[in-house]
Amino acid sequence: MKNIKQSSFGKPRLLILGCGDVGMRLLPLLRHRFRVFAVTSQPARCAELRAAGAIPLVADLDQPATLARLSCLAQIVVHLAPPHSVSEKDQRTRNLVAILPERTTLVYISTTGVYGDCGGALIDETRPLMPHNGRARRRVDAEQVLRHWARRRSARLAILRVPGIYAADRLPLERLRKGTPALIAEDDVYTNHIHADDLARIIVAAIFKASPLRVYHAADDSTLKMAEYFDAVAAAFALPCPPRLPRAELQKVVSPMLLSFMSESRRLQNRRIKSELGVQLKYPDVQNALSAMIADGKC
Protein backbone atom coordinates (compact mmCIF):
# COMPACT_ATOMS: atom_id res chain seq x y z
CA MET A 1 0.00 0.00 0.00
CA LYS A 2 2.76 2.30 -0.99
CA ASN A 3 2.76 5.55 -2.94
CA ILE A 4 -0.11 7.30 -1.17
CA LYS A 5 -0.13 10.70 -2.82
CA GLN A 6 -1.41 14.15 -1.97
CA SER A 7 -4.61 14.93 -3.84
CA SER A 8 -4.91 18.08 -5.91
CA PHE A 9 -6.99 19.50 -3.02
CA GLY A 10 -4.42 18.92 -0.27
CA LYS A 11 -4.17 16.02 2.13
CA PRO A 12 -5.33 12.59 0.97
CA ARG A 13 -8.69 11.54 2.41
CA LEU A 14 -9.10 8.64 4.81
CA LEU A 15 -12.32 7.11 6.10
CA ILE A 16 -12.67 5.23 9.41
CA LEU A 17 -15.64 2.94 9.98
CA GLY A 18 -16.21 1.77 13.55
CA CYS A 19 -14.40 4.64 15.26
CA GLY A 20 -14.51 3.32 18.83
CA ASP A 21 -11.59 3.05 21.23
CA VAL A 22 -9.01 1.94 18.66
CA GLY A 23 -10.30 4.46 16.13
CA MET A 24 -9.92 7.26 18.67
CA ARG A 25 -6.33 6.15 19.29
CA LEU A 26 -5.77 6.20 15.53
CA LEU A 27 -6.90 9.79 15.03
CA PRO A 28 -3.84 11.50 16.59
CA LEU A 29 -1.61 9.36 14.34
CA LEU A 30 -3.52 10.21 11.17
CA ARG A 31 -4.99 13.69 11.38
CA HIS A 32 -1.76 15.47 10.41
CA ARG A 33 -1.25 13.28 7.33
CA PHE A 34 -4.83 12.86 6.13
CA ARG A 35 -8.15 14.58 6.02
CA VAL A 36 -9.92 12.03 8.21
CA PHE A 37 -13.63 11.24 8.03
CA ALA A 38 -15.10 9.11 10.83
CA VAL A 39 -18.41 7.33 10.41
CA THR A 40 -20.75 7.00 13.38
CA SER A 41 -24.34 5.80 13.63
CA GLN A 42 -24.78 7.96 16.75
CA PRO A 43 -25.24 11.70 16.10
CA ALA A 44 -24.36 12.36 19.74
CA ARG A 45 -20.75 11.30 19.02
CA CYS A 46 -20.15 13.92 16.34
CA ALA A 47 -18.78 16.54 18.75
CA GLU A 48 -16.36 14.00 20.26
CA LEU A 49 -15.08 12.95 16.85
CA ARG A 50 -14.75 16.54 15.67
CA ALA A 51 -12.78 17.48 18.80
CA ALA A 52 -10.42 14.54 18.11
CA GLY A 53 -9.62 15.88 14.65
CA ALA A 54 -12.03 13.96 12.42
CA ILE A 55 -14.86 15.10 10.20
CA PRO A 56 -17.86 13.13 11.54
CA LEU A 57 -20.35 11.52 9.19
CA VAL A 58 -23.59 9.95 10.38
CA ALA A 59 -24.24 6.69 8.54
CA ASP A 60 -25.18 3.14 9.44
CA LEU A 61 -23.64 0.02 7.89
CA ASP A 62 -26.93 -1.76 8.61
CA GLN A 63 -28.80 0.81 6.49
CA PRO A 64 -27.41 0.77 2.93
CA ALA A 65 -29.37 3.89 1.95
CA THR A 66 -27.25 5.94 4.39
CA LEU A 67 -23.96 4.88 2.80
CA ALA A 68 -24.24 6.50 -0.64
CA ARG A 69 -22.51 9.68 0.54
CA LEU A 70 -19.43 7.60 1.44
CA SER A 71 -18.86 6.46 -2.13
CA CYS A 72 -15.74 8.05 -3.64
CA LEU A 73 -15.23 10.12 -0.48
CA ALA A 74 -11.79 8.75 0.42
CA GLN A 75 -8.96 6.84 -1.22
CA ILE A 76 -8.16 4.96 2.00
CA VAL A 77 -10.56 3.10 4.30
CA VAL A 78 -9.90 1.63 7.75
CA HIS A 79 -12.64 -0.90 8.48
CA LEU A 80 -12.92 -1.39 12.25
CA ALA A 81 -16.65 -2.12 12.37
CA PRO A 82 -17.54 -5.56 13.74
CA PRO A 83 -20.13 -7.74 12.08
CA HIS A 84 -23.66 -7.75 13.41
CA SER A 85 -24.12 -10.38 16.13
CA VAL A 86 -26.59 -12.47 14.14
CA SER A 87 -26.37 -14.62 11.00
CA GLU A 88 -23.38 -16.48 9.59
CA LYS A 89 -22.63 -13.64 7.15
CA ASP A 90 -21.25 -10.14 7.62
CA GLN A 91 -23.85 -8.04 5.85
CA ARG A 92 -22.21 -4.84 7.04
CA THR A 93 -19.08 -5.55 5.03
CA ARG A 94 -21.21 -6.49 2.04
CA ASN A 95 -23.03 -3.17 2.31
CA LEU A 96 -19.72 -1.32 2.52
CA VAL A 97 -18.00 -2.84 -0.52
CA ALA A 98 -21.12 -2.25 -2.60
CA ILE A 99 -20.41 1.49 -2.51
CA LEU A 100 -16.61 1.57 -2.60
CA PRO A 101 -14.95 2.58 -5.89
CA GLU A 102 -12.09 0.89 -7.70
CA ARG A 103 -8.52 1.16 -6.46
CA THR A 104 -9.47 1.91 -2.88
CA THR A 105 -6.88 1.08 -0.23
CA LEU A 106 -8.56 -0.78 2.65
CA VAL A 107 -7.22 -2.09 5.96
CA TYR A 108 -9.59 -4.56 7.63
CA ILE A 109 -9.41 -5.42 11.32
CA SER A 110 -10.29 -9.09 11.67
CA THR A 111 -9.74 -11.54 14.53
CA THR A 112 -7.44 -14.45 15.27
CA GLY A 113 -10.57 -16.38 16.21
CA VAL A 114 -10.79 -17.34 12.53
CA TYR A 115 -8.26 -20.12 13.23
CA GLY A 116 -10.37 -21.84 15.88
CA ASP A 117 -8.61 -24.10 18.37
CA CYS A 118 -5.03 -24.89 17.37
CA GLY A 119 -4.16 -27.00 20.40
CA GLY A 120 -1.58 -24.47 21.57
CA ALA A 121 0.42 -24.65 18.33
CA LEU A 122 2.60 -21.76 17.19
CA ILE A 123 0.98 -20.57 13.95
CA ASP A 124 1.67 -18.09 11.19
CA GLU A 125 -0.69 -16.37 8.77
CA THR A 126 -0.82 -19.37 6.41
CA ARG A 127 -2.68 -21.53 8.94
CA PRO A 128 -5.96 -22.87 7.47
CA LEU A 129 -9.07 -21.19 8.87
CA MET A 130 -11.34 -23.33 11.06
CA PRO A 131 -13.74 -20.98 12.89
CA HIS A 132 -15.60 -22.67 15.75
CA ASN A 133 -18.32 -20.12 16.53
CA GLY A 134 -20.60 -17.62 14.87
CA ARG A 135 -18.43 -14.62 15.71
CA ALA A 136 -15.42 -16.13 13.95
CA ARG A 137 -17.44 -17.43 11.00
CA ARG A 138 -18.75 -13.92 10.36
CA ARG A 139 -15.16 -12.64 10.30
CA VAL A 140 -14.13 -15.34 7.83
CA ASP A 141 -17.08 -14.32 5.68
CA ALA A 142 -15.99 -10.67 5.82
CA GLU A 143 -12.43 -11.58 4.83
CA GLN A 144 -13.71 -13.60 1.87
CA VAL A 145 -16.03 -10.81 0.74
CA LEU A 146 -13.19 -8.28 0.92
CA ARG A 147 -10.75 -10.52 -0.95
CA HIS A 148 -13.27 -11.02 -3.77
CA TRP A 149 -14.00 -7.27 -3.87
CA ALA A 150 -10.29 -6.36 -3.89
CA ARG A 151 -9.51 -8.68 -6.80
CA ARG A 152 -12.55 -7.58 -8.78
CA ARG A 153 -12.08 -3.84 -8.24
CA SER A 154 -8.25 -3.66 -8.35
CA ALA A 155 -8.31 -2.52 -4.72
CA ARG A 156 -5.47 -2.79 -2.20
CA LEU A 157 -6.47 -4.83 0.83
CA ALA A 158 -4.59 -5.70 4.01
CA ILE A 159 -6.13 -7.90 6.70
CA LEU A 160 -4.96 -7.55 10.30
CA ARG A 161 -5.93 -10.52 12.46
CA VAL A 162 -6.12 -9.22 16.00
CA PRO A 163 -6.11 -11.15 19.31
CA GLY A 164 -7.23 -9.80 22.70
CA ILE A 165 -6.90 -6.01 22.83
CA TYR A 166 -5.95 -4.49 26.16
CA ALA A 167 -4.97 -1.11 27.66
CA ALA A 168 -5.13 0.50 31.09
CA ASP A 169 -8.89 0.92 30.66
CA ARG A 170 -9.37 -2.43 28.91
CA LEU A 171 -8.31 -4.94 31.56
CA PRO A 172 -10.33 -7.77 33.21
CA LEU A 173 -10.52 -5.95 36.56
CA GLU A 174 -14.23 -6.48 37.12
CA ARG A 175 -13.84 -10.17 36.42
CA LEU A 176 -11.02 -10.36 38.96
CA ARG A 177 -13.04 -8.45 41.56
CA LYS A 178 -15.93 -10.86 41.08
CA GLY A 179 -13.63 -13.84 41.51
CA THR A 180 -14.63 -15.44 38.21
CA PRO A 181 -12.66 -18.70 38.05
CA ALA A 182 -9.98 -19.60 35.53
CA LEU A 183 -8.84 -23.00 34.31
CA ILE A 184 -6.34 -25.17 36.12
CA ALA A 185 -2.93 -25.28 34.40
CA GLU A 186 -3.41 -28.63 32.67
CA ASP A 187 -6.71 -27.48 31.10
CA ASP A 188 -5.67 -23.90 30.37
CA VAL A 189 -5.28 -22.35 26.91
CA TYR A 190 -2.71 -20.06 25.35
CA THR A 191 -4.06 -16.60 24.70
CA ASN A 192 -2.63 -13.73 22.65
CA HIS A 193 -2.59 -9.99 23.18
CA ILE A 194 -1.95 -6.56 21.70
CA HIS A 195 -1.99 -3.19 23.42
CA ALA A 196 -4.57 -0.86 21.85
CA ASP A 197 -1.92 1.81 21.21
CA ASP A 198 0.30 -0.69 19.39
CA LEU A 199 -2.68 -1.86 17.33
CA ALA A 200 -3.29 1.73 16.21
CA ARG A 201 0.37 2.01 15.18
CA ILE A 202 0.19 -1.29 13.27
CA ILE A 203 -2.84 -0.02 11.36
CA VAL A 204 -0.93 3.10 10.32
CA ALA A 205 2.03 0.97 9.20
CA ALA A 206 -0.34 -1.22 7.16
CA ILE A 207 -1.78 1.83 5.38
CA PHE A 208 1.66 2.78 4.10
CA LYS A 209 3.58 -0.49 3.85
CA ALA A 210 1.28 -3.52 3.57
CA SER A 211 1.44 -5.64 0.45
CA PRO A 212 -1.88 -6.10 -1.39
CA LEU A 213 -4.03 -9.03 -0.21
CA ARG A 214 -1.62 -9.68 2.65
CA VAL A 215 -2.60 -10.98 6.10
CA TYR A 216 -0.77 -9.91 9.25
CA HIS A 217 -0.95 -11.01 12.88
CA ALA A 218 -1.34 -7.80 14.89
CA ALA A 219 -0.04 -9.45 18.06
CA ASP A 220 2.68 -8.78 20.60
CA ASP A 221 5.42 -11.15 21.77
CA SER A 222 3.57 -12.50 24.84
CA THR A 223 3.36 -16.24 25.40
CA LEU A 224 0.85 -16.58 28.20
CA LYS A 225 -1.84 -18.97 29.20
CA MET A 226 -5.10 -17.28 30.08
CA ALA A 227 -4.84 -17.76 33.84
CA GLU A 228 -1.27 -16.42 33.75
CA TYR A 229 -2.61 -13.26 32.11
CA PHE A 230 -5.22 -12.86 34.82
CA ASP A 231 -2.58 -13.44 37.51
CA ALA A 232 -0.31 -10.77 36.00
CA VAL A 233 -3.13 -8.20 35.95
CA ALA A 234 -4.19 -9.16 39.47
CA ALA A 235 -0.65 -8.71 40.78
CA ALA A 236 -0.33 -5.29 39.12
CA PHE A 237 -3.58 -4.06 40.68
CA ALA A 238 -3.19 -5.80 44.06
CA LEU A 239 -6.22 -7.99 43.46
CA PRO A 240 -6.69 -11.67 44.35
CA CYS A 241 -5.74 -14.17 41.65
CA PRO A 242 -8.76 -15.99 40.26
CA PRO A 243 -9.59 -19.43 41.65
CA ARG A 244 -8.78 -22.39 39.40
CA LEU A 245 -11.24 -25.05 38.29
CA PRO A 246 -11.04 -28.07 35.98
CA ARG A 247 -12.81 -27.50 32.67
CA ALA A 248 -15.65 -29.85 33.57
CA GLU A 249 -16.47 -27.72 36.62
CA LEU A 250 -15.75 -24.34 35.10
CA GLN A 251 -18.19 -24.83 32.23
CA LYS A 252 -20.99 -25.06 34.80
CA VAL A 253 -20.35 -21.59 36.23
CA VAL A 254 -19.27 -19.32 33.33
CA SER A 255 -21.25 -18.00 30.39
CA PRO A 256 -21.17 -19.82 27.03
CA MET A 257 -19.37 -16.83 25.47
CA LEU A 258 -16.67 -16.81 28.13
CA LEU A 259 -16.33 -20.56 27.84
CA SER A 260 -15.81 -20.22 24.09
CA PHE A 261 -12.78 -17.98 24.70
CA MET A 262 -11.44 -20.60 27.11
CA SER A 263 -11.79 -23.36 24.51
CA GLU A 264 -9.30 -22.15 21.90
CA SER A 265 -5.53 -22.31 22.35
CA ARG A 266 -2.93 -20.92 19.96
CA ARG A 267 0.29 -18.94 19.89
CA LEU A 268 0.86 -16.39 17.15
CA GLN A 269 3.95 -15.64 15.15
CA ASN A 270 4.22 -11.90 14.49
CA ARG A 271 7.26 -11.73 12.22
CA ARG A 272 5.38 -10.12 9.33
CA ILE A 273 4.44 -6.95 11.20
CA LYS A 274 8.10 -6.50 12.13
CA SER A 275 9.87 -7.51 8.92
CA GLU A 276 7.32 -6.23 6.38
CA LEU A 277 5.62 -3.33 8.16
CA GLY A 278 8.64 -2.25 10.19
CA VAL A 279 6.66 -2.17 13.43
CA GLN A 280 8.54 -1.77 16.70
CA LEU A 281 6.14 -2.55 19.51
CA LYS A 282 5.91 0.03 22.28
CA TYR A 283 4.65 -2.75 24.56
CA PRO A 284 6.36 -5.99 23.45
CA ASP A 285 4.47 -8.05 26.02
CA VAL A 286 1.79 -7.76 28.68
CA GLN A 287 4.21 -7.57 31.60
CA ASN A 288 6.06 -4.71 29.94
CA ALA A 289 2.79 -2.81 29.56
CA LEU A 290 1.70 -3.51 33.14
CA SER A 291 5.06 -2.26 34.41
CA ALA A 292 4.55 0.95 32.43
CA MET A 293 1.07 1.33 33.92
CA ILE A 294 2.51 0.95 37.42
CA ALA A 295 5.18 3.56 36.65
CA ASP A 296 2.51 5.93 35.31
CA GLY A 297 0.35 5.43 38.42
CA LYS A 298 -2.42 3.70 36.46
CA CYS A 299 -2.29 0.59 38.65
TrEMBL record:
The keyword Oxidoreductase applies. Residues 18-209 form the NAD-dependent epimerase/dehydratase domain. The keyword ATP-binding does not apply. Keywords: Oxidoreductase. Its EC number is 1.1.1.290. Pfam families: Epimerase. GO terms for molecular function: 4-phosphoerythronate dehydrogenase activity. It comes from the Bacteria. PANTHER family: NAD(P)-BINDING DOMAIN-CONTAINING PROTEIN-RELATED, PROTEIN YEEZ. This is SDR family oxidoreductase. It comes from Paraherbaspirillum soli.
